[in-house]
Amino acid sequence: MADVTPLPKKKQVVDLQKELRPISLTPVVSKVSEDLSVLNLHTSFSELLRSDILCGHGGAVGVGLVLDSAGTFPVLLDRSWSDRKSGALIKKEELVLFILFVVIAAFGLLGNLLVCLNITKNRPVRRPINWLFLNLAISDITILVFLAVMYIIVRVVSHPRGPTCDALCKFLTAGNIAWVGVVSSTCSLVCIALERFHMVFKPTRHKSLFRVVSAKRGIALSWVFGVLINIPLFVVERFDAKILFCSEAWPSSIASRYYTVTWLAVVIIIPGILMFFLYWRIIRFVAQ
User: Any stretches that span the bilayer, and where are they (predicted)?
Assistant: First the structure.
């Protein structure tokens, strides 16, 4: 006689249905949507770096070079040590990277100052190429000084508050003038590449094209161009009391993206391609 399995009781069937009920994802989705709402359309890249989503510091943001709590994501922004709560410990990564910044800035300033002294004292500045090298060193000094203010000095000293804080952000602590130096440095590198190219391929026209007066005019134009292309940064930079440091207040995310792409194309990509082509031609000519 075949075994007959007894049917489960009504209560057992109800319990089984509860166990097999699909898990609701509504709380998870609502939490993700809540986190993503932080990234509104007016959030710039610098503000995104300062957000809790990337930094993972629970709102303790400001300026510096640190790692997040997991020690895997490099972040250039963290609260100044003097703005932290009393008794808060300084991370080992923070101290190491801070010392690294100081060493790089010190050696960079020393090296470029020696270049300036060497050109002005030991070698008479009579050739156009020397003027270009001098401007390149001055541009690098400008970059190092204002980045040192942004990532070293403000790291150990709180950002000043008050009516002048916005002006300090625009012209000192946010590093905008460092980007002017980057543009001038790039222009100097392009002019040096053009000077080398004409010396190799067009030696008869070299002296007429590259004179001291022409070099001085080119240097002046490089700084003017650097100021003009960075005007939007001076306009949108302001002090944010929430993060106790400077942030960019763009009218829209589209404007920020267009400006970033244009800046990279004009200052980095196009000059890089041009210099690569010029030096490639020179190397091929010398190799033959």
Answer: 95-119, 131-157, 177-197, 218-236, 256-280
CA contacts within 13 A on the Cβ side of 280: 6
The answer on pLDDT for 196 being more than 80 is: yes
Which residues share a beta bridge with 74?
67
Asked if residue 5 has pLDDT above 80, the reply is no
Please name the amino acid found at residue 184: S
SS3 85: coil
Q: What are the residues facing 67 on neighbouring strands?
A: 74
User: DSSP H helical segments within 118-266, as ranges?
Assistant: 128-148, 154-156, 165-168, 176-201, 203-209, 212-229, 231-236, 253-264
Domains, the chain, ordered by start: 91-287 (1.20.1070.10)
Task: Say which range, 55-64, 250-259, 276-285, has the weakest mean pLDDT.
Answer: 55-64
Task: Name the E strands within 12-139.
Answer: 66-67, 74-75
Indicate whether 192 pLDDT > 90.
yes
pTM attached to this predicted model: 0.69
Question: Residue 19 contacts by C-beta under 8 Å, 6 or more apart in sequence?
Answer: none
Rounded CA separation 16/228 (Å): 72
Residue 276, burial from CB neighbour count under 10 angstroms (0-12, 13-18, 19+) = exposed
Which run of H or E residues covers position 267? Answer: none
> What are residue 248's DSSP bridge partners?
237
